[in-house]
Amino acid sequence: MNIKSLLLGSAAALAAVSGAQAADAIVAAEPEPLEYVRVCDAFGTGYFYIPGTETCLKIGGYVRVQVDGRSDSDVVGSALVSDGAGGLVEVATGQNGGYRTNTRAQLVVEAKNDTEFGTLASKITARANTNGSSSDFYLEESYLQLGGLRVGYFYNYFDNGLPGETVLSDGGPFDSVYGLGGDTLNNSIRYTYDAGTFSVYGQVDAFDSQDGWKTDEAGNDDEIGINGVITGKFGGVTLDFFAGYDFDSENAALASTLTAEIGPGSLGVFAAYSFGANRYFDASEWTIGAEYAIKVTDKFSIAPGVQYWDNIVLASDGDFDGGDAWRAGITADYKITTGLSAKATINYTDVDAGQFGDDDKWDGFLRLQRSF
């Protein structure tokens, strides 16, 4: 009898424990439905909706590996040095020939959405370079835009250029950094009116100063420029006209670019005129250059080009003081496969720098670039 009671009690205890464990069992929650990324085709290819929003995002960029080469050059720039009597004299500067390697990575993020005031857009460009001896990481063109109004850090007209690498729209052969003249990237505000075949924009630039502050004490309170561009498209021809004024130097610059589909390729002509030293263009008093981009096959194209500069010596008073130069070369582009391309260029420049003497120079590069 005692044994029977013990067995019944044990069974009851086991049942109670089992019931308690069943009540405490963890039940896996049902997975919530996933929201797949939707393609946004309202602003072109490559955009997708940020989940849960109506904002379209696009991520792109490139990785570039490049080898540059150049010959010796005695006249590539000028500098003001002491004359030993308390004054300054302008002397020519040169550079040794050789080669260098550089790897660059660039990442671009763009966001757009429609509003009652037009398209709201923003762009962030991050870039990093390494040339074997140093490296840098910095913010490139980055801005916000609402309708036709753009505010931020972006390029001006002189960075547009032509398809090849011969015509230098942003500099000249007698610049302190050899062919990279002008002030093309600044904090600016621009308004664009675009009517399709006709567009016009006006822009105000805050030029970079030594410490960023525009003050009377620093003497750089006038480091402001204004410029505007009128563009017209007529079938296969596009023509624009640029005018800019630098309040600090109180000088202006004019420029124009024409592109036209002719025969098997596209002709591009660039011309500029400077009234004196200014932040937009001061490589010479005037210049004209042309390139013809020929599409040989679907993957291969070449672009021969030539450019001439007149009055290339910039005196210390801001006026041009003689000399001229010309440059000729060719650029080849080859599309290896989707997203991967190669570019090569070689150019010859001849400089007659007046009191600084005569000189010539070869330069070029070979580039491999993966874009996405």
From TrEMBL:
Consists of 16-stranded beta-barrel sheets, with large surface-exposed loops, that form a transmembrane pore at the center of each barrel. The pore is partially ocluded by a peptide loop that folds into the pore lumen. Pfam families: Porin_2 (PF02530). Residues 1-22 form the signal peptide. It is found in: Cell outer membrane. The keyword Amino-acid biosynthesis does not apply. GO terms for cellular component: cell outer membrane; pore complex. One of its GO terms (biological process) is monoatomic ion transport. Forms passive diffusion pores that allow small molecular weight hydrophilic materials across the outer membrane. Belongs to the alphaproteobacteria porin family. It is a multi-pass membrane protein. GO terms for molecular function: porin activity. This is Porin. Keywords: Cell outer membrane, Ion transport, Membrane, Porin, Signal, Transmembrane, Transmembrane beta strand, Transport.
